[in-house]
Amino acid sequence: MNGLKFSRKQLGIPYAVFLIAFxxxxxxxxxxxxxxxxxxxxxxxxxxxxxxVSFAVSNFSDxxxxxxxxxxxxxxxxxxxxxxxxxLFIAYPVAYILSKTKFNKGGVLLVLFILPLWINFVLRTAAxxxxxxxxxxxxxxxxSFINTLIGMVYDYLPFVxxxxxxxxxxxxKSYAEASADxxxxxxxxxxxxxxPLSMPGIVSAISMVLLPTTTSYVISDTLGNGxxxxxxxxxxxxxxxxxxxxxxxxxxxxxxxxxxxxxxxxGKFTEEEDESAGRANLW
Amino acid sequence: MSDKIIELVGIxxxxxxxxxxxxxxxxxxxxxxxxxxxxxxxxxKTTTLRMIAGFEIPTSGKIxxxxxxxxxxxxxxxxxxxxxxxxxxxxxxxxYDNIAFGxxxxxIKTTSKDKNGNVxxxxxxxxxxxxxxxxxxxxxxxxxxEFEKRKVTTLSGGQQQRIAIARxxxxxxxxxLLDEPLGALDLKxxxxxxxxxxDMQRKLGITFIYVTHDQEEALTMSDRIVxxxxxEVQQIGxxxxxxxxxxxxxxxxxxxxxxxYNGTIVGDxxxxxxxxxxxxxxxxxxxxxxxxxxxxxxxxxVKPEEGxxxxxxxxxxxxxxxxxxxxxxxxxxxxxxxxxxxxxGDTIGIRVSPDNIHIMKRDFVSNVYDGYxxxxxxxxxxxxxxxxxxxxxxxxxxxxxxxxxITTAGEKIxxxxxxxxxxxxxxxxxxxxxDEDGDARGSIISxxxxxxxxxxxxxxxxxxxxxxxxxxxxxxxxxxVSVKIPKDKIxxxxxxxxxx
Amino acid sequence: MVxxxxxxxxxxLVLFLLYAPILLLFVYSFNMSREIGIWSPEWGFDLxxxxxxxxxxxxxxxxxxxxALAAGFISTVxxxxxxxxxxxxxxxxxxxxxxxxxxxxxxxxxxxxxxIALICTxxxxxxxxxxxxxxxxxxxxxxxxxxxxxxxxxxxxxxxxAVLDLGATPTKAIFLIVIPEILPGIISGFLLAINISLxxxxxxxxxxxxxxxxxxxxxxxxxxxGGKSSSVPALRALFAIIFVVMIAYVVIHSFIQSRxxxxxxxx
Lengths: 283, 500, 267
Hints:
heterotrimer; A: 13 helices; 72% helix; C: mainly alpha; MetI-like fold; 2 domains; 78% helix
């Protein structure tokens, strides 16, 4: 043979290099940028990409001291939480009814609910804007928040229906039968048995939606006409408009820490596989 | 209160798609009885149980509980509890909450007097202390005391099953339904649980309706057994009745080990099977086709010259309790269970006393054979090869030029050696005076005058298969004849694959 | 019975709300009015012709598709190789790479976007097609990996060794045995990657050359911040076409699936 000992492990090397170069290092870069500040050349500790910088923690205090920023944080989280709750309330009955239908009609109908996801996200949001305009929701600026909310729920509803359905459909029918057998009326059966057993699906749905609704500013920009700002948007502004990459990185780092912390706490790292497998199952 | 606690009247259940799961089921169960529905998979026993529980609504018929019609009552309103096949213990609740589930929902009527002496009736929930007490009593009954706090998923199969039972009986139902509850347990545990369940039932006095496919289990535990097949009741009776006097071949075969043979009544209380005539006690008309059942333990082993028939032992297995041996008589096997050992290769004689020969009438309208198709699309049965129409095996198909069958879906099928079931009507057989011109041959062994025609039975030479014909001509016994059957009178069906 | 009616109507209602914007745009793609809401008596495929002749928009569409295919292809190759490599490495390596793979998925897109922008600027190809492509690959490759790994897990371990034992070179073994076994995972990963890439806005906006447009950025520019796309009614036609193509794909896909399962079932 070649003398080259080929092992399947080696196939993974390009990917490993890629991961390090374009996932790990960039995150480290963000950290670096967050802790440095642009300074005049003479005071600089070193240069990054032609910019003279030195270490500073002031980025963080700068960010958190501005009340506008705090307001944005509140709006982001508020919007995300309300969207999640509203979506859950709309999606749960849908998933429940679909899971109860016989002969896999539920699976077929589910496809109908997933279908809109195939259309470009921004286009769908634009279509929603047209509809809202059509019904007059743009007559005044005070509707911006609710328009954004409607758009968020609209765009993310299929993502909430999916995990709920896949959990509900797997619940063994004999639990509901046992509950009825023991004397529980249908409402009691739902509250005492079905709902608790569907908790993993609810948690999964929340995790699929909570983060994107905090940071995805496409919807808030399009439907809110620029009146609704969320966290993701400030990062974009800092980066693209203000060219202040340090401030942008600061906020990004804060987000990163929050994300990793909550993932770590809820041990969700393992469930991501199911999530993206779930997304993959769409296709 | 009447003795009849549950009555099923004319119950039928048809599912979407036309499957008739249960057909005309009639049964009454007495208070305190242990009744078992017994049968193979798919016979409708679980469906019937579910209709009593309320999970299925009958398509027709009535279910009466203590005289009250509960046919359409939802399960949570019936004083009936179920032990499920896979237990269905709520995984998100611990043992205590599982067992107490039904109790917490119960409302008890309480009567009290107010200050004017009037009687007030109220419906109240059970107090926590009462629930605690009932739960611990139920746990004690299933031998799992102190298990209240345990998580259901940490229990073994046997423990889960007992919790499932505890959860059901703690509600003191009038009827307890058990759907093959011992299926997932190993043999020793199953046998122990069978005795425990029977004991529990006697102590509690609750009526048990039990579903199983294990005939030994049914015989051990039941007061009465309902044997079912393909949605129909085959026989209802005590274990002794069913074992000793099965009403048809299916029940005989299903319960216990049996020897079953095709037989023919040849005289007054005389039946022929395995090519020998035996004395029996049942009276049927001459030439009636019957199923003959002889229990292996009823076969007496005697010296070859003393037996009604003799043969060689081809298999002998020690089963602990007895020896299980197989004896060949001609082409037939006889299973014998005896404490006497006979070695393989030895020749013995057997006797069966007349009242140990159980005879059941067989419906006989046509000749039925197992056959197969050969290369040139002829069907072989009764030691003969006959021209036939093989396209009837696949409706709508036709033959191509090479003799392959082309189905409506366009599939090409080669039928060589395909096993088929052959049916030929009694009137469709032509008897020919010599044994060369026909397609199958043999000797006439029986002629019976049936009023307006003669019924002739021809027996083939090697396999001793019988061909029964109705004819207006008179023949003689022992004539050598052959038969011809018109191509279109041979009915073929594919032999179904054995269902497990 | 009543329950069924209530259930059915709820589902229909939600479905209707879900499809209302889509149907609105679909209908108006055949109507020549300048604005949705104003009904013009003219009907026809005019907007579709306009779409065809709008070179700007058509170029955008082509860009988007080419980008998606390129990113999809690179992701699939990189990801499949990575998945195979990971699967056959030591547990530690496997787990580490697994965790790293999940980072772009759980991370907020903005954060990933700027991280790519940062590193590419560092290396000197800041806002270029290269950084755009890299951005899309980072976004999609984890999904490819996570699609392939389950198939690797399902695969019979002994197949690879058996083939080597019969004399094949490792390369041949990979191509003849492993790849066909995990092909469903590769294909679904590929399709998923394409779809994600087609859909993306945030990463695209951070990493693309300034004059480059994708459908996402084009629509965003037209609609965001108070804009209304009256100037580009052709977008409605584009929308309608995408919708029809997607339906066709799903219908054909599920048709193939049901035929496959019917054939397998009749065995």
